[in-house]
# Entry
Amino acid sequence: MKAVLQRVLSAKVEVEGKVISSIDQGLLTLLGIERGDKQEDLEKLIQKIINLRIFEDEQGKMNLSLLDIKGQHLIVSQFTLLGDCSKGRRPHFMNAEQPERAKELYMWAIQESQKYVLTQGGQFAADMKVELVNDGPVTIML
# Structure
């Protein structure tokens, strides 16, 4: 799996012109599920994400986690993170999980994150418009 984390002041997802989810300060996670990924893998990833110390403390040092700041989490499924561009000019997505299984794992990741922080998601397989105010900017790839 691949994840791109963006520290945000706010973020939202629109589908067909309607806001379907939005968060205030926290993290936007773009999540790509690969063939063979398991719930245990996602559990480790979610734990890493919510405990990653990338928010500033009183001294301005990145020393606080999403849990510490009581931040919010927006998880958006993005299979294009798994695009392989090593040959030719068009990416292939052969490493992406099958849609049914990917959706199941994606929904599970949202539920797992909800155990710890306020978490919302995008709409799986939809044409989404994602808007964010990147804080820093801070962007981390896992």
